[in-house]
Amino acid sequence: MPYCSDCGSKIESSESFCANCGQQQQPEVSVTPGRKPRKVWLVAGLAVVLLVILGAVILIPGEVGIYGTYVLQDHPEEAVLEIRRDGTVVVREEGRVVDSGQWIWVIKGEVIKVEARGKPAVHGRIEGNKLIFTDPWRGEIIFVRQ
Q1: What is the dihedral of CA 114, 129, 67, 117, to 10 degrees?
Q2: pLDDT tens for residues 27-50?
């Protein structure tokens, strides 16, 4: 037999109000221990898998999405870099192909190194959709992906 939540008097389990003080009674909720539904485990498992995939994509070096065409940020008509999947770079200046296939690129983390046979390497960094190279005379040269 339950008791009133206000005055502590005994009440019948079927009564909604206490006969002694008139306080409305809340129905008892019984919690039975049991197994969690499979749906919860399925959702939790899928969430973990998605987090692992997202973490892997973030931690994989910038090589994953680097391929494509980049234009000089301040003067897009002056210079274009085409980063190819085969590891080569095509350089165009003012619409003309200057070097095709002679330049190669290598990525290590967020650093990109572009070099040509017999020429000094140029180092830069990858920031989102930008390739940023540092030139001792011109400062930062920023190429933006088209």
Answers
A1: -10
A2: 665 556 666 566 777 777 777 777
Q: Please give the Cα distance from 82 to 97 (Å, whole number).
A: 10
Give me the residue spans of the domains in the chain. 1-34, 37-61, 66-145
Task: Single out the residue of 67, 78, 70 nearest to residue 143, CA to CA.
Answer: 70
Q: Which amino acid is at 79?
A: A
Tokens 């980063």 appear where? Answer: 83
For residues 5 and 24, give the distance between their C-alpha atoms in angstroms, rounded to a whole number.
Answer: 9
Q: CB–CB of 121/129 below 8 Å?
A: no
Residues 124/106, Cβ–Cβ less than 8 Å: no
Determine the topology of domain 66-145 in CATH.
Lipocalin (2.40.128)
Supply 79's token pair.
């210079």
HSE-CB for 108 with a 13 A CA cutoff = 3
| Positions of the chain with pLDDT lower than 50, given as ranges | 57-63
